[in-house]
Design brief:
The protein has 14 helices and no strands. The chain has helices at about 1-30, 35-45, 45-55, 60-70, 75-85, 90-95, 100-125, 145-180, 180-190, 195-205, 210-220, 225-235, 240-245, 250-275. Mean pLDDT is about 80; it is low at about 130-135.
Length: about 280
């Protein structure tokens, strides 16, 4: 019973952190929505670099907000991919609070930033999507409402919606981990180190901060190699992927982003694993 209460408390805590971060970002977005969209339009080719840089910010609030921007076609497919690929949820916080893993954290950030930008840029190039066909009418669709509704109530309601999503997923995932047992997961990955790159990316797909914490702790405790840490965290974008799945874009477009994340996360992971054999 105590363990289940701990899971409930952790779920509430995780949800609350995401709620407050998302609320701040949504308020900022509502205040500068026109400027942000105009900025992304002007930067076009560099938008994936900006997206990857934003993705490095801990927690999943950024991935959720940019998924909303993608839903309204305010940013390109390559940009949202770069954000997701560079996201690590709570992993960087854990790595940088341990002096022994700070170098790994810095290297991870470099890989995520460079690969996120490169892959995002190539995706936009491949899709030939430009940012000059936005529907400006979608920006500030609440212009006839007062400032309190525009800049506080609507951001609050959006953040509250995210809170319930995060809470539900965190609670379910926490119970599943409790039933399976973390030790069994640790042991399974330890005896399958060469397959851990793949398994880690599968765990990273779970839309919850607990997945990034689990992957990071596995690495710190030498349960998985650095390559598996990279593949898992490049696949992990927290609750952002869940928000992507519910956004108003075609199933084909959303599937392309998720499939690209999975494939390229594994490609980068196995390349690192191969290089590590010669170092």
């Amino acid at each position: 019973m105590d363990d289940l209460l701990d899971i409930l408390q952790d779920s509430i805590l995780d949800s609350s952190k995401v709620f407050f971060l998302a609320l701040i970002i949504f308020i900022i977005f509502s205040l500068f929505e026109h400027k942000l969209v105009s900025f992304f339009k002007k930067q076009n080719k560099l938008s994936p670099l900006i997206g990857a840089s934003l993705g490095l910010i801990p927690e999943c609030g950024v991935s959720v907000v940019t998924a909303r921007m993608y839903s309204f076609s305010f940013i390109s497919t390559g940009t949202i991919f770069a954000v997701f690929f560079a996201s690590s949820d709570e992993a960087l916080t854990i790595l940088f609070t341990n002096s022994k893993t700070i170098p790994s954290g810095l290297l991870l950030m470099g890989i995520k930033l460079s690969c996120g930008f490169l892959f995002g840029f190539l995706i936009d190039l491949f899709l030939k999507r430009k940012l000059n066909d936005f529907d400006e009418s979608k920006i500030h669709k609440y212009d006839d409402e007062n400032n309190l509704e525009k800049y506080l109530i609507h951001p609050f309601l959006h953040a509250l919606e995210i809170f319930f999503y995060v809470f539900a997923v965190s609670l379910i995932f926490g119970i599943v981990i409790y039933l399976i047992g973390e030790e069994k997961i640790y042991h399974f990955l330890e005896i399958n180190k060469y397959s851990s790159v793949l398994y880690s990316s599968i765990i990273g797909f779970i839309p919850n901060c607990a997945s990034s914490v689990l992957i990071t702790n596995l690495y710190i405790n030498n349960g998985i190699p650095f390559a598996a840490l990279v593949s898992g965290l490049c696949m992990n974008s927290g609750i952002g992927v869940l928000y992507l799945l519910k956004c108003k874009r075609s199933f084909k477009a959303k599937s392309f982003i998720i499939l690209s994340l999975f494939i390229l996360s594994n490609v980068v992971g196995y390349v690192i694993l191969l290089i590590s054999q010669f170092i």
